[in-house]
Amino acid sequence: MFLPGSFRHAGEFALVGQLAQAHAAQTELAAMLEQNPAMWMRQLKTLPTFEKYVNTEGEVIYLSHAGFTPWYKDNESFDIQIPVNSELIWNRDHFLDDVDEIEWAPITIVHGHTPIPYLWEDFRVPEEDQEKGALWYANGRKLCIDTGAVWTGHCVLVNLDTWDEEIFEI
Questions:
Q1: Whole-prediction pTM
Q2: Pairing mode of beta strands 60-64, 135-137
Q3: C-beta separation of 111 from 65 below 8 A
Q4: How far apart are CA 95 and CA 109, in angstroms?
């Protein structure tokens, strides 16, 4: 999930999982949802499911909760096909896409939704080669930032302008 506003303008992408760890934030959110759940559902439905960001180096980055593989409507212009909203929120099938068969435009997809420890298993990465922090995959065209903070105890903050990572314990 991406955070709009000051995070977007600073070119930084943060894990919402960090906020979910704060007991006070959980309590406050639960109270707000309990007071008027219909209003909150209407508000949530108005939020964007993806965001396009162009960093200071001119790199095009698509931010979405679940990630996707960019299929092209037109290979000349690399006008990408954005999946339907439900796929941008829930899809995990894109991890299985054969990215070697795709002609990639100069774009990067940044997402969460699937904790990196699950991806290590899917990609059959030996435990000794697994690192903390964000996971680059799909020939360096996708970046998963879901560290599974609820059970790993660490989060990652990625600066989208420099690709620098800050890993912190929660």
A1: 0.71
A2: unpaired
A3: yes
A4: 12
Question: For every one of its 170 residues, what pLDDT tens digit does the chain have, with 9 covering 90 and above?
Answer: 344 444 433 333 333 444 444 455 567 777 877 888 888 888 878 888 889 999 999 999 999 988 888 766 555 555 677 777 788 888 877 776 666 666 666 789 999 988 888 777 777 778 888 788 899 988 888 999 998 888 888 889 999 999 999 998 88
**Of how many residues is the chain composed?**
170
Which DSSP letter does residue 166 get? E
Concatenating the DSSP letter of every residue in 77-146 gives TTEEEPPPHHHHHH--GGGGS-GGGS---SEEEEE-SS-HHHHHHHTT--GGG--SS-EEETTTTEEE--
Token code pair at residue 37: 């759940």
Which residue reads 């930032």 in tokens? 145
Residue 88: CB partners within 8 Å, gap ≥ 6? 49, 50, 64, 65, 66, 68, 82
Distance, CA of 22 to CA of 160 (rounded, Å): 25
